[in-house]
Design goal:
Length: 65
C-alpha cells in the first residue's frame, strides 16, 4: 500500500466521490459506501480500503469544521 502523499488527482477523485454520496444522502437515496470505495480504488495509487475510508472521514470533519 502507498505511504506517499495523496496527489491532486486522487484528492479530486475522492472529494467528488464524497459529494456524490452526500448528494444521495441529502436526497434520501440509498447508496453503498463500500461499493463507492471499491469503485474508487482502481483509480487511486495503490491505496487501501482503510485509507479511503479514513480520507472520507477527514473530508467530513473538514466540512463540519
Amino acid at each position: 500500500m502507498s505511504n506517499e502523499a495523496w496527489t491532486n488527482e486522487e484528492n479530486d477523485l475522492i472529494v467528488a466521490d464524497y459529494f456524490a454520496m452526500l448528494a444521495d444522502d441529502v436526497r434520501g437515496r440509498t447508496y453503498n459506501k463500500t461499493e463507492h470505495r471499491r469503485r474508487l480504488l482502481p483509480l487511486l495509487r495503490n491505496r487501501s480500503e482503510g485509507s479511503v475510508e479514513f480520507k472520507h472521514q477527514n473530508i467530513s470533519a473538514a466540512l463540519k469544521g
